[in-house]
């Protein structure tokens, strides 16, 4: 099921495929891109969904705060201008290739 915890991802994971399980902490919909902050017991990581993975992007449009989800994707380094120094995982993000909604929040 899970290969890593959200809060433990670092630069050393760049290029690796990971599977994460946790909760949607925050969702930002930019139309053709959706970003979520995904949370588990170890911390938060940014996950994004793009149009090249249409099925995952479509399902991500249904996400709301506190949905319990599983995401599989590739860890990427963030552009230097997008690094978030306030987050332990702020130098990386996960490009999602697959999304499963485990439980929806009311």
Written account of the structure:
This protein is mainly beta and 106 residues long. The chain has one domain: Nucleic acid-binding proteins (OB fold (Dihydrolipoamide Acetyltransferase, E2P)). It is built from one helix and five strands. A five-stranded mixed barrel has the order 1-2-3-5-4. The radius of gyration is 12 Å and the shape is globular.
SSE diagram, text form:
Blueprint: E1 17-29, E2 34-40, E3 43-49, H1 54-60, E4 68-77, E5 92-103
Parallel strand pairs: 3-5
Antiparallel strand pairs: 1-2, 1-4, 2-3, 4-5
β-strand amount: over 45%
Radius of gyration: 12 Å
Name the structural class.
mainly beta
| Order of secondary-structure elements | EEEHEE
Low-confidence stretches: none
How many discrete domains?
1
Question: Quick one: how many beta strands?
Answer: 5
Arithmetic mean pLDDT:
96
* Percent in helix: under 10%
Largest sheet, strands/sense/barrel: 5 strands, mixed, barrel
What is the CATH superfamily label?
Nucleic acid-binding proteins
Q: What is the CATH architecture annotation? A: Beta Barrel
The CATH class is identified as Mainly Beta
Count of separate DSSP helical elements:
1
Cα end-to-end separation: 25 Å
Catalytic activity: tRNA(Asp) + L-aspartate + ATP = L-aspartyl-tRNA(Asp) + AMP + diphosphate
GO molecular function: aspartate-tRNA ligase activity; ATP binding; nucleic acid binding
Enzyme class: ligase
Domain OB: 18-102
